[in-house]
Amino acid sequence: MLLDDTILEKHTLGLEGICKLLDTKTGGFILGLSVVLLCWSDGKKTLPLAFLPYTKGKSKHDLAVELLEQAKEWGLTPKYTLFDAWYASQKVLKTVIRLGWHFVTRLRKNRYLDGKKLKTRYSHPNWHTIGKLKGGIEVKVFRRGRKFYATSDTSLQWKTVKKLYKIRAEIEEVFRVLKQECGWQGVQQRNIKTYTNHLTFGLLAYHYLQKLKLQTRSGVFALRRRLISRKLTLNRDDLNAFLDTAA
């Protein structure tokens, strides 16, 4: 299971939920709405499950906890929950453990393990050890150069942790398709309720695109070209059946 957030850029502060947000890619601030997304992946196919928009009143970590608990209510049992250092807070880590799952994540170098900062624990750049983060969270930590990785499954070796953490990057492709092909970007609804409804339809569109991909053996962008050129037409009965199932 993958957890991350993205910014949907806007051009005015007049919309509900819009604020100045830090863009971690550029280091600057942009106007937009931040959305926290939960995905399911087998390492080859990644599907968005649910999202929550970030507005005043709750932190992104609160939203992450809500999404994880929702996944538990649905009966999902992921082998591992993957996220970057931003979401590796006590609240999120303890939630994953409480739900009976394991996590694999990055840690910031100023985090404490057994009372000592990770960056000063050992002098050499490659090591691993088992210890406890603040809050008594037992983890196995791997240092590779300037980066620190942690997992609650202390039986894992570095090769497996590295392979698992790479899967987390698949969520970026999901965000790209949601924004470019499913209407998540460039919409200017006036309130968060209608905006959330619009994003929900975009999420459904993503799943229907995956269904078409399997039927036609085409990629998302090839499907778009075929639809625009009318070389491919949608079967309305099939679409209605999909929507009925989704509902």
Class from helix and strand fractions: alpha+beta
Question: How many DSSP H or I helices?
Answer: 8
Describe the largest sheet.
5 strands, mixed
Oligomeric state: single chain
Q: End-to-end span in angstroms?
A: 23 Å
| Number of beta strands | 11
The succession of helices and strands, N to C, reads: EEEEHEHEEEHEEEHHHHH
What do the pLDDT scores average to?
A: 89
Rg from Cα: 20 Å
**Helical content band:** 25-40%
Instruction: Flag low-confidence runs.
Output: none
List the helices and strands and how they pair.
Blueprint: E1 2-9, E2 19-22, E3 29-41, E4 46-53, H1 60-73, E5 81-83, H2 90-98, E6 103-107, E7 112-113, E8 116-117, H3 118-121, E9 126-133, E10 137-144, E11 147-151, H4 158-167, H5 170-181, H6 192-216, H7 220-228, H8 236-246
Parallel strand pairs: 5-6
Antiparallel strand pairs: 1-3, 2-3, 3-4, 6-11, 7-8, 9-10, 10-11
Helix pairs in contact: 1-2
Structure, explained:
With 247 residues, the protein is α+β, with helices and mostly antiparallel strands. The protein contains eight helices and eleven strands. β9 and β10 (137-144) form a beta hairpin. The longest helix has 25 residues, at 192-216. The two termini are 23 Å apart. The model has no long low-confidence stretch (mean pLDDT 89).
Concise synopsis of the structure shown:
The chain has 247 residues and is α+β, with helices and mostly antiparallel strands. Helices cover 38% and strands 27% of the residues. The protein has 8 helices and 11 strands.
